[in-house]
Write a structure and sequence with these properties.
Low-confidence stretches: none
Helix content: 25-40%
Structural class: alpha+beta
Strand order of the largest sheet: 1-2-3-4-5-6-8-7
Number of helices: 5
CATH architecture: 3-Layer(aba) Sandwich
Order of helices and strands: EEHHHEEEHEHEE
Shape: globular
Distance between the termini: 31 Å
Number of domains: 1
Number of strands: 8
């Protein structure tokens, strides 16, 4: 297993550990944080399973999923989660969550930037993409802010709580990234 550690200006992305249960509960167990993603808050047992899945994914060879804790450098607290799900043709889907009290402070942008940079520089990816549903336009703003391009909208692509939602997709290619 190759452990991941990616440093930025205000945070570091690292492997999730069992010791992260409490700080992850403040993120994944928060209704306001999870609602824009069409998810109910996770229970303690579900968060334990999330951590177990992250640990299992980190040990797989070849590795297909990176579920990383975003830890603030100022206080060594877990402030978010960043994910990279590898797909075919040197592609991956990027995602992330930030603790609600830290929204609109640049944390999501830095987290996604570090994750994309890791994907291109360390994993040799060609295309990284992300999407958000119509109830979460803030995610689209973050993706555009870091240099991802809007590709289009899939209409009625997800049924969430009895409501059909559109999904907007953004991407960035490896040759576009160094030019940022």
């Amino acid at each position: 297993m190759r452990s991941v550690l990616v440093s930025g200006q205000t945070m570091v992305l690292r492997e999730i550990t069992e010791a992260d249960l409490q700080p992850l509960s403040a993120i994944l167990g928060d209704a306001a944080t999870m609602d824009p993603y069409g998810s109910d808050p996770l229970t303690t047992e579900q968060i334990r399973q999330y951590i177990a899945d992250a640990c299992l994914a980190s040990a797989q060879e070849p590795r297909e999923r990176y579920i990383l804790a975003a830890e603030g450098l100022a206080n060594a607290e877990v402030i978010g989660v960043s994910t990279l799900e590898l797909g075919p043709y040197r592609s991956a889907m990027v995602g992330g969550l930030v603790r609600r009290d830290l929204w609109r402070a640049g944390n999501a942008s830095e987290g996604i930037t570090l994750t994309i940079d890791f994907g291109f520089r360390e994993l040799g990816l060609h295309r990284i993409w992300g999407c958000h549903d119509s109830t979460n336009p803030a995610s689209g703003h973050v993706m555009a802010k870091v240099g991802m391009r809007y590709e289009g909208t899939r209409r009625d692509s997800a049924l969430v709580r009895g409501q059909w939602l559109d999904s907007s997709t953004y991407s960035v290619l490896e040759h576009e990234w160094p030019a940022r």
